[in-house]
Amino acid sequence: MSDTTDIQEADVLVVGGGLHGTSSAFHLARRGAKVIMLEADYVARHASGVNAGGVRTLGRPLPEIPLALMSREIWHGMSDLLGENGGFVASGQLKIAETDDELDACRQRVAQLESHGFTHEKVIDRDTVLELEPALARHVTGGIWVERDGYALPYRTTTAFRLAAQRLGARFLEGTPVRRIEQRGTRWFAVTPHGTFSANQLLVTAGAWSGELAKQVGESVPVHPEGLMLMVTQRVAPFCRATLGATGRPLSFKQFDNGTVVIGGKLIGIADLANRHGEVDFARLVRSARTVTDLFPHLRNLGVNRAWAGVEAFTEDELPVISASRKAANLYYSFGYCGSGFQLGPGCGQLVSELMLDGKPSLSLDAFAIDRFSRSAAASRSGASHLVAH
Length: 390
Ligand SMILES: Cc1cc2nc3c(=O)[nH]c(=O)nc-3n(C[C@H](O)[C@H](O)[C@H](O)COP(=O)(O)OP(=O)(O)OC[C@H]3O[C@@H](n4cnc5c(N)ncnc54)[C@H](O)[C@@H]3O)c2cc1C
Description:
This protein is α+β, with helices and mostly antiparallel strands. The chain contains eleven helices and 20 strands. The protein has two domains: 8-51 and 155-223 and 317-385, 3-Layer(bba) Sandwich (FAD/NAD(P)-binding domain); 90-149 and 224-315, D-Amino Acid Oxidase, Chain A, domain 2. 33% of the residues lie in helices and 28% in strands. Strands 1, 2, 8, 9, 10, 11, 19 and 20 form an eight-stranded mixed β-sheet that branches. Helix 1 (19-30) links the parallel strand 1 and strand 2 (35-38). The protein is globular, with a radius of gyration of 22 Å. The chain starts with 7 loop residues before the first strand and ends with a helix. Mean pLDDT is 94; it is low at 384-390. The protein binds flavin-adenine dinucleotide (FAD).
Protein backbone atom coordinates (compact mmCIF):
# COMPACT_ATOMS: atom_id res chain seq x y z
CA MET A 1 0.00 0.00 0.00
CA SER A 2 2.91 2.38 -0.66
CA ASP A 3 1.23 4.07 -3.65
CA THR A 4 -1.81 5.89 -2.29
CA THR A 5 -2.67 7.65 -5.58
CA ASP A 6 -4.77 4.71 -6.91
CA ILE A 7 -6.80 4.17 -3.80
CA GLN A 8 -10.56 4.41 -4.41
CA GLU A 9 -12.42 6.24 -1.66
CA ALA A 10 -15.90 5.99 -0.15
CA ASP A 11 -17.69 6.71 3.13
CA VAL A 12 -18.37 3.01 3.71
CA LEU A 13 -16.81 -0.17 2.33
CA VAL A 14 -19.10 -3.22 2.42
CA VAL A 15 -17.29 -6.56 2.09
CA GLY A 16 -19.60 -9.29 0.77
CA GLY A 17 -22.55 -9.07 -1.64
CA GLY A 18 -25.12 -11.41 -0.14
CA LEU A 19 -28.52 -10.17 1.02
CA HIS A 20 -27.08 -8.67 4.21
CA GLY A 21 -24.43 -6.75 2.25
CA THR A 22 -26.81 -5.53 -0.46
CA SER A 23 -29.55 -4.61 2.03
CA SER A 24 -27.05 -2.73 4.22
CA ALA A 25 -25.61 -1.00 1.13
CA PHE A 26 -29.12 0.06 0.10
CA HIS A 27 -30.08 1.41 3.54
CA LEU A 28 -26.71 3.21 3.89
CA ALA A 29 -26.95 4.76 0.41
CA ARG A 30 -30.52 5.80 1.15
CA ARG A 31 -29.21 7.82 4.07
CA GLY A 32 -26.71 9.55 1.77
CA ALA A 33 -23.55 7.49 2.42
CA LYS A 34 -21.17 6.91 -0.48
CA VAL A 35 -20.86 3.12 -0.58
CA ILE A 36 -18.47 0.75 -2.36
CA MET A 37 -19.42 -2.95 -2.23
CA LEU A 38 -16.61 -5.47 -2.76
CA GLU A 39 -17.72 -9.02 -3.67
CA ALA A 40 -15.32 -11.93 -4.15
CA ASP A 41 -17.50 -13.83 -6.66
CA TYR A 42 -20.73 -12.24 -7.88
CA VAL A 43 -23.63 -10.76 -5.96
CA ALA A 44 -25.98 -13.49 -4.60
CA ARG A 45 -23.57 -16.28 -5.61
CA HIS A 46 -23.72 -17.94 -2.17
CA ALA A 47 -26.38 -18.52 0.52
CA SER A 48 -28.38 -15.40 -0.37
CA GLY A 49 -28.98 -16.52 -3.94
CA VAL A 50 -29.51 -20.25 -3.44
CA ASN A 51 -31.55 -20.57 -0.24
CA ALA A 52 -35.08 -21.89 0.24
CA GLY A 53 -36.61 -18.41 0.26
CA GLY A 54 -38.53 -18.95 3.51
CA VAL A 55 -39.78 -15.65 4.94
CA ARG A 56 -40.40 -17.04 8.40
CA THR A 57 -40.90 -15.38 11.75
CA LEU A 58 -42.24 -18.76 13.00
CA GLY A 59 -39.93 -20.71 15.32
CA ARG A 60 -37.30 -17.99 15.81
CA PRO A 61 -35.20 -17.85 18.98
CA LEU A 62 -36.54 -15.13 21.34
CA PRO A 63 -33.77 -12.53 20.79
CA GLU A 64 -34.38 -12.59 17.01
CA ILE A 65 -38.15 -12.09 17.16
CA PRO A 66 -38.24 -8.25 17.29
CA LEU A 67 -35.86 -8.14 14.29
CA ALA A 68 -37.89 -10.74 12.39
CA LEU A 69 -41.17 -8.89 13.01
CA MET A 70 -39.63 -5.61 11.89
CA SER A 71 -38.17 -7.29 8.80
CA ARG A 72 -41.53 -8.85 7.99
CA GLU A 73 -43.12 -5.40 7.68
CA ILE A 74 -40.41 -4.47 5.15
CA TRP A 75 -41.20 -7.65 3.15
CA HIS A 76 -44.86 -6.66 3.00
CA GLY A 77 -43.93 -3.15 1.75
CA MET A 78 -41.03 -4.14 -0.48
CA SER A 79 -42.58 -3.01 -3.76
CA ASP A 80 -42.89 0.53 -2.40
CA LEU A 81 -39.34 0.46 -1.06
CA LEU A 82 -37.49 -1.11 -4.01
CA GLY A 83 -39.93 -0.96 -6.91
CA GLU A 84 -40.10 -4.78 -6.87
CA ASN A 85 -41.17 -7.37 -4.29
CA GLY A 86 -38.49 -10.05 -4.71
CA GLY A 87 -41.19 -12.57 -5.59
CA PHE A 88 -42.62 -12.38 -2.06
CA VAL A 89 -45.82 -14.40 -1.56
CA ALA A 90 -47.61 -14.15 1.80
CA SER A 91 -48.49 -17.86 1.75
CA GLY A 92 -48.47 -18.23 5.55
CA GLN A 93 -46.12 -20.65 7.32
CA LEU A 94 -47.36 -23.81 9.03
CA LYS A 95 -45.31 -25.95 11.43
CA ILE A 96 -46.87 -29.39 11.57
CA ALA A 97 -47.13 -31.59 14.69
CA GLU A 98 -47.31 -35.33 14.00
CA THR A 99 -47.86 -36.65 17.55
CA ASP A 100 -49.66 -35.48 20.70
CA ASP A 101 -46.30 -34.78 22.36
CA GLU A 102 -45.30 -32.56 19.45
CA LEU A 103 -48.57 -30.66 19.70
CA ASP A 104 -47.90 -30.17 23.44
CA ALA A 105 -44.47 -28.78 22.53
CA CYS A 106 -46.22 -26.34 20.13
CA ARG A 107 -48.57 -25.21 22.94
CA GLN A 108 -45.64 -24.67 25.30
CA ARG A 109 -43.74 -22.69 22.68
CA VAL A 110 -46.69 -20.37 21.98
CA ALA A 111 -47.39 -19.91 25.73
CA GLN A 112 -43.73 -18.97 26.24
CA LEU A 113 -43.91 -16.42 23.41
CA GLU A 114 -47.12 -14.94 24.81
CA SER A 115 -45.48 -14.53 28.22
CA HIS A 116 -42.97 -12.26 26.39
CA GLY A 117 -45.74 -10.33 24.63
CA PHE A 118 -45.39 -11.99 21.19
CA THR A 119 -48.68 -13.12 19.66
CA HIS A 120 -47.74 -13.81 16.02
CA GLU A 121 -47.63 -17.65 16.39
CA LYS A 122 -51.00 -19.41 16.83
CA VAL A 123 -51.62 -23.03 17.83
CA ILE A 124 -54.15 -24.70 15.53
CA ASP A 125 -55.84 -28.09 15.87
CA ARG A 126 -55.81 -31.04 13.48
CA ASP A 127 -59.03 -30.05 11.69
CA THR A 128 -57.75 -26.53 11.01
CA VAL A 129 -54.44 -27.90 9.70
CA LEU A 130 -56.30 -30.22 7.34
CA GLU A 131 -58.62 -27.41 6.28
CA LEU A 132 -55.58 -25.30 5.37
CA GLU A 133 -53.74 -28.18 3.67
CA PRO A 134 -56.20 -30.95 2.69
CA ALA A 135 -53.51 -33.05 0.94
CA LEU A 136 -51.58 -33.65 4.20
CA ALA A 137 -51.46 -37.17 5.65
CA ARG A 138 -54.24 -37.85 8.19
CA HIS A 139 -51.87 -38.64 11.09
CA VAL A 140 -51.07 -34.94 11.75
CA THR A 141 -52.23 -33.72 15.18
CA GLY A 142 -52.16 -29.92 14.78
CA GLY A 143 -49.48 -27.26 14.48
CA ILE A 144 -48.44 -23.61 14.65
CA TRP A 145 -49.68 -21.14 12.03
CA VAL A 146 -48.33 -17.69 11.13
CA GLU A 147 -50.51 -16.04 8.54
CA ARG A 148 -48.25 -13.11 7.54
CA ASP A 149 -45.18 -15.26 6.83
CA GLY A 150 -44.44 -16.65 3.37
CA TYR A 151 -41.67 -17.11 0.84
CA ALA A 152 -39.77 -15.16 -1.81
CA LEU A 153 -37.24 -15.74 -4.59
CA PRO A 154 -33.74 -15.38 -3.13
CA TYR A 155 -31.75 -14.35 -6.22
CA ARG A 156 -34.43 -11.88 -7.26
CA THR A 157 -34.63 -10.34 -3.76
CA THR A 158 -30.86 -9.90 -3.39
CA THR A 159 -30.64 -8.45 -6.92
CA ALA A 160 -33.50 -6.06 -6.13
CA PHE A 161 -31.58 -4.63 -3.16
CA ARG A 162 -28.43 -4.42 -5.27
CA LEU A 163 -30.15 -2.54 -8.11
CA ALA A 164 -31.90 -0.18 -5.69
CA ALA A 165 -28.56 0.55 -3.97
CA GLN A 166 -26.94 1.20 -7.36
CA ARG A 167 -29.72 3.62 -8.29
CA LEU A 168 -28.79 5.54 -5.12
CA GLY A 169 -25.14 5.71 -6.22
CA ALA A 170 -23.59 2.66 -4.52
CA ARG A 171 -20.79 1.04 -6.57
CA PHE A 172 -20.60 -2.77 -6.82
CA LEU A 173 -17.30 -4.47 -7.71
CA GLU A 174 -17.64 -8.20 -8.37
CA GLY A 175 -14.76 -10.67 -8.74
CA THR A 176 -13.00 -8.53 -6.13
CA PRO A 177 -12.02 -10.58 -3.07
CA VAL A 178 -10.80 -8.60 -0.08
CA ARG A 179 -7.54 -10.21 1.00
CA ARG A 180 -6.70 -7.87 3.88
CA ILE A 181 -8.42 -5.23 5.96
CA GLU A 182 -6.48 -2.76 8.07
CA GLN A 183 -6.96 0.58 9.78
CA ARG A 184 -4.46 3.41 9.33
CA GLY A 185 -5.16 6.42 11.45
CA THR A 186 -8.90 6.89 11.24
CA ARG A 187 -9.37 5.25 7.83
CA TRP A 188 -10.03 1.66 6.82
CA PHE A 189 -8.28 0.05 3.87
CA ALA A 190 -9.37 -3.08 1.98
CA VAL A 191 -6.72 -4.69 -0.19
CA THR A 192 -7.89 -6.67 -3.25
CA PRO A 193 -6.16 -8.03 -6.38
CA HIS A 194 -7.80 -5.13 -8.26
CA GLY A 195 -6.55 -2.35 -6.04
CA THR A 196 -6.97 -0.86 -2.61
CA PHE A 197 -10.15 0.78 -1.34
CA SER A 198 -10.50 3.14 1.59
CA ALA A 199 -13.32 4.57 3.72
CA ASN A 200 -14.10 5.90 7.18
CA GLN A 201 -16.22 2.87 8.00
CA LEU A 202 -16.00 -0.79 7.01
CA LEU A 203 -18.79 -3.39 7.22
CA VAL A 204 -18.08 -7.13 7.02
CA THR A 205 -21.03 -9.05 5.53
CA ALA A 206 -18.94 -11.91 4.15
CA GLY A 207 -21.17 -14.77 5.34
CA ALA A 208 -19.24 -17.94 6.18
CA TRP A 209 -15.95 -16.16 5.34
CA SER A 210 -16.45 -13.34 7.85
CA GLY A 211 -14.50 -15.05 10.64
CA GLU A 212 -11.32 -14.89 8.55
CA LEU A 213 -11.65 -11.11 8.20
CA ALA A 214 -12.49 -10.60 11.90
CA LYS A 215 -9.38 -12.61 12.81
CA GLN A 216 -7.24 -10.07 10.91
CA VAL A 217 -8.11 -7.44 13.52
CA GLY A 218 -7.62 -9.87 16.40
CA GLU A 219 -11.33 -10.54 16.90
CA SER A 220 -11.77 -14.29 17.11
CA VAL A 221 -15.37 -15.55 16.65
CA PRO A 222 -16.59 -19.17 16.96
CA VAL A 223 -18.18 -19.30 13.49
CA HIS A 224 -18.07 -22.33 11.20
CA PRO A 225 -19.43 -23.12 7.72
CA GLU A 226 -22.06 -25.72 6.84
CA GLY A 227 -23.25 -26.78 3.38
CA LEU A 228 -27.05 -26.61 3.50
CA MET A 229 -28.91 -28.66 0.88
CA LEU A 230 -32.10 -28.21 -1.10
CA MET A 231 -33.84 -30.15 -3.84
CA VAL A 232 -36.50 -29.16 -6.35
CA THR A 233 -38.98 -31.58 -7.91
CA GLN A 234 -40.70 -31.90 -11.23
CA ARG A 235 -43.96 -30.01 -11.69
CA VAL A 236 -47.07 -31.38 -10.07
CA ALA A 237 -50.66 -30.08 -9.93
CA PRO A 238 -51.22 -27.54 -7.12
CA PHE A 239 -51.75 -29.29 -3.76
CA CYS A 240 -50.09 -27.09 -1.12
CA ARG A 241 -50.49 -23.35 -0.53
CA ALA A 242 -48.61 -22.66 2.73
CA THR A 243 -44.89 -22.90 3.38
CA LEU A 244 -44.43 -25.90 5.67
CA GLY A 245 -42.10 -27.00 8.43
CA ALA A 246 -42.32 -29.88 10.91
CA THR A 247 -41.98 -30.01 14.69
CA GLY A 248 -40.28 -33.37 15.15
CA ARG A 249 -37.97 -33.55 12.14
CA PRO A 250 -36.21 -31.16 9.78
CA LEU A 251 -38.42 -29.88 6.99
CA SER A 252 -38.88 -26.80 4.85
CA PHE A 253 -41.34 -27.31 2.04
CA LYS A 254 -43.17 -25.15 -0.46
CA GLN A 255 -44.85 -25.45 -3.83
CA PHE A 256 -44.30 -22.65 -6.30
CA ASP A 257 -46.92 -21.37 -8.73
CA ASN A 258 -45.18 -23.28 -11.55
CA GLY A 259 -45.90 -26.58 -9.74
CA THR A 260 -42.36 -27.42 -8.60
CA VAL A 261 -41.76 -28.22 -4.92
CA VAL A 262 -38.68 -27.04 -3.03
CA ILE A 263 -37.63 -29.29 -0.17
CA GLY A 264 -35.05 -28.53 2.52
CA GLY A 265 -34.91 -27.73 6.23
CA LYS A 266 -31.34 -27.19 7.42
CA LEU A 267 -30.22 -30.44 5.74
CA ILE A 268 -26.47 -30.57 6.21
CA GLY A 269 -24.32 -31.42 3.18
CA ILE A 270 -20.68 -30.48 2.68
CA ALA A 271 -19.15 -26.98 2.88
CA ASP A 272 -15.84 -26.32 1.13
CA LEU A 273 -14.85 -22.86 2.31
CA ALA A 274 -11.45 -22.76 0.59
CA ASN A 275 -12.91 -23.61 -2.82
CA ARG A 276 -15.99 -21.50 -2.14
CA HIS A 277 -18.72 -24.05 -2.79
CA GLY A 278 -21.09 -26.57 -1.19
CA GLU A 279 -21.68 -30.21 -2.11
CA VAL A 280 -24.73 -32.46 -1.80
CA ASP A 281 -24.73 -35.57 0.44
CA PHE A 282 -27.31 -37.76 -1.31
CA ALA A 283 -27.78 -40.20 1.60
CA ARG A 284 -29.01 -37.34 3.78
CA LEU A 285 -31.28 -36.06 1.02
CA VAL A 286 -32.98 -39.45 0.90
CA ARG A 287 -33.98 -39.11 4.59
CA SER A 288 -35.55 -35.79 3.88
CA ALA A 289 -37.41 -37.10 0.84
CA ARG A 290 -38.90 -39.74 3.16
CA THR A 291 -40.28 -37.04 5.49
CA VAL A 292 -42.02 -35.49 2.50
CA THR A 293 -43.62 -38.73 1.31
CA ASP A 294 -44.74 -39.49 4.91
CA LEU A 295 -46.58 -36.18 4.95
CA PHE A 296 -47.76 -36.20 1.33
CA PRO A 297 -48.04 -39.87 0.27
CA HIS A 298 -49.23 -38.90 -3.22
CA LEU A 299 -45.75 -37.53 -4.00
CA ARG A 300 -44.14 -40.98 -3.73
CA ASN A 301 -43.29 -41.18 -7.45
CA LEU A 302 -42.46 -37.54 -8.04
CA GLY A 303 -39.01 -37.03 -9.62
CA VAL A 304 -36.34 -34.70 -8.25
CA ASN A 305 -34.99 -32.36 -10.92
CA ARG A 306 -32.08 -30.75 -9.13
CA ALA A 307 -30.28 -30.71 -5.77
CA TRP A 308 -27.64 -28.28 -4.53
CA ALA A 309 -25.87 -27.03 -1.42
CA GLY A 310 -25.07 -23.47 -0.35
CA VAL A 311 -22.45 -22.40 2.19
CA GLU A 312 -23.82 -20.79 5.34
CA ALA A 313 -22.19 -19.41 8.54
CA PHE A 314 -23.16 -20.93 11.90
CA THR A 315 -22.22 -19.62 15.35
CA GLU A 316 -21.87 -21.45 18.66
CA ASP A 317 -25.14 -20.09 20.12
CA GLU A 318 -27.08 -20.11 16.82
CA LEU A 319 -27.53 -16.34 16.83
CA PRO A 320 -25.97 -13.96 14.30
CA VAL A 321 -23.27 -11.40 14.96
CA ILE A 322 -24.68 -7.90 14.28
CA SER A 323 -22.27 -5.62 16.03
CA ALA A 324 -19.67 -2.91 16.13
CA SER A 325 -16.17 -4.30 16.54
CA ARG A 326 -14.88 -4.35 20.12
CA LYS A 327 -11.27 -4.19 18.88
CA ALA A 328 -11.27 -1.32 16.37
CA ALA A 329 -13.26 1.86 15.76
CA ASN A 330 -15.59 2.20 12.76
CA LEU A 331 -15.59 -1.51 11.97
CA TYR A 332 -18.92 -3.39 11.91
CA TYR A 333 -20.12 -6.95 11.37
CA SER A 334 -23.33 -8.63 10.20
CA PHE A 335 -22.94 -12.39 9.63
CA GLY A 336 -23.53 -15.86 11.10
CA TYR A 337 -27.23 -16.15 10.32
CA CYS A 338 -27.31 -19.94 10.97
CA GLY A 339 -29.60 -20.96 8.12
CA SER A 340 -32.32 -18.36 8.81
CA GLY A 341 -30.91 -15.06 7.59
CA PHE A 342 -32.91 -14.56 4.40
CA GLN A 343 -36.03 -13.35 6.20
CA LEU A 344 -33.90 -11.05 8.39
CA GLY A 345 -31.99 -9.42 5.50
CA PRO A 346 -34.26 -6.45 4.76
CA GLY A 347 -34.60 -5.46 8.45
CA CYS A 348 -31.03 -6.14 9.53
CA GLY A 349 -29.70 -3.99 6.68
CA GLN A 350 -31.72 -1.09 8.07
CA LEU A 351 -30.58 -1.72 11.66
CA VAL A 352 -26.94 -1.97 10.56
CA SER A 353 -27.25 1.36 8.71
CA GLU A 354 -28.65 2.96 11.90
CA LEU A 355 -25.86 1.44 14.00
CA MET A 356 -23.22 2.78 11.59
CA LEU A 357 -24.68 6.23 10.89
CA ASP A 358 -26.45 7.07 14.18
CA GLY A 359 -24.45 4.96 16.63
CA LYS A 360 -27.73 3.54 17.93
CA PRO A 361 -30.12 1.18 16.12
CA SER A 362 -33.89 1.51 16.56
CA LEU A 363 -34.01 -2.03 18.03
CA SER A 364 -31.50 -3.36 20.53
CA LEU A 365 -28.73 -5.48 19.02
CA ASP A 366 -27.16 -6.33 22.40
CA ALA A 367 -27.91 -10.06 22.07
CA PHE A 368 -25.83 -10.15 18.87
CA ALA A 369 -22.66 -8.42 20.17
CA ILE A 370 -19.44 -9.91 18.85
CA ASP A 371 -17.81 -10.09 22.30
CA ARG A 372 -20.59 -12.24 23.81
CA PHE A 373 -18.58 -15.42 23.14
CA SER A 374 -15.46 -14.20 24.94
CA ARG A 375 -17.61 -12.78 27.80
CA SER A 376 -19.41 -16.12 28.30
CA ALA A 377 -16.08 -18.02 28.10
CA ALA A 378 -14.61 -15.66 30.73
CA ALA A 379 -17.73 -16.06 32.92
CA SER A 380 -17.54 -19.85 32.78
CA ARG A 381 -13.78 -19.69 33.58
CA SER A 382 -14.42 -17.50 36.63
CA GLY A 383 -17.32 -19.80 37.60
CA ALA A 384 -14.93 -22.75 37.45
CA SER A 385 -12.27 -21.05 39.58
CA HIS A 386 -14.99 -20.03 42.03
CA LEU A 387 -15.94 -23.69 42.42
CA VAL A 388 -12.30 -24.69 42.90
CA ALA A 389 -11.77 -21.96 45.51
CA HIS A 390 -14.59 -23.42 47.58
C1 LIG B 1 -29.74 -24.10 1.22
C2 LIG B 1 -30.09 -22.96 2.12
C3 LIG B 1 -31.41 -22.75 2.49
C4 LIG B 1 -31.75 -21.66 3.32
N1 LIG B 1 -33.07 -21.39 3.55
C5 LIG B 1 -33.42 -20.26 4.22
C6 LIG B 1 -34.78 -19.92 4.37
O1 LIG B 1 -35.67 -20.58 3.87
N2 LIG B 1 -35.09 -18.79 5.09
C7 LIG B 1 -34.12 -18.02 5.67
O2 LIG B 1 -34.46 -17.03 6.34
N3 LIG B 1 -32.80 -18.30 5.50
C8 LIG B 1 -32.44 -19.40 4.77
N4 LIG B 1 -31.11 -19.70 4.59
C9 LIG B 1 -30.10 -18.84 5.18
C10 LIG B 1 -29.82 -17.59 4.36
O3 LIG B 1 -29.66 -17.91 3.01
C11 LIG B 1 -28.55 -16.92 4.90
O4 LIG B 1 -28.65 -16.76 6.31
C12 LIG B 1 -28.32 -15.55 4.28
O5 LIG B 1 -28.47 -15.60 2.89
C13 LIG B 1 -26.93 -15.07 4.65
O6 LIG B 1 -26.66 -13.91 3.92
P1 LIG B 1 -25.25 -13.20 4.01
O7 LIG B 1 -25.36 -11.97 3.20
O8 LIG B 1 -24.85 -13.10 5.44
O9 LIG B 1 -24.20 -14.26 3.39
P2 LIG B 1 -23.91 -14.77 1.89
O10 LIG B 1 -25.12 -14.87 1.08
O11 LIG B 1 -23.06 -15.99 2.06
O12 LIG B 1 -23.03 -13.61 1.29
C14 LIG B 1 -21.70 -13.39 1.69
C15 LIG B 1 -20.94 -12.89 0.46
O13 LIG B 1 -19.64 -12.46 0.88
C16 LIG B 1 -18.72 -12.77 -0.16
N5 LIG B 1 -17.37 -12.78 0.41
C17 LIG B 1 -16.85 -13.68 1.28
N6 LIG B 1 -15.58 -13.36 1.59
C18 LIG B 1 -15.28 -12.25 0.88
C19 LIG B 1 -14.11 -11.43 0.77
N7 LIG B 1 -12.99 -11.71 1.46
N8 LIG B 1 -14.14 -10.37 -0.08
C20 LIG B 1 -15.28 -10.07 -0.77
N9 LIG B 1 -16.41 -10.82 -0.70
C21 LIG B 1 -16.42 -11.87 0.13
C22 LIG B 1 -19.19 -14.13 -0.66
O14 LIG B 1 -18.70 -14.40 -1.96
C23 LIG B 1 -20.71 -13.98 -0.58
O15 LIG B 1 -21.27 -13.57 -1.80
C24 LIG B 1 -30.73 -20.81 3.82
C25 LIG B 1 -29.40 -21.02 3.46
C26 LIG B 1 -29.07 -22.07 2.62
C27 LIG B 1 -27.63 -22.27 2.21
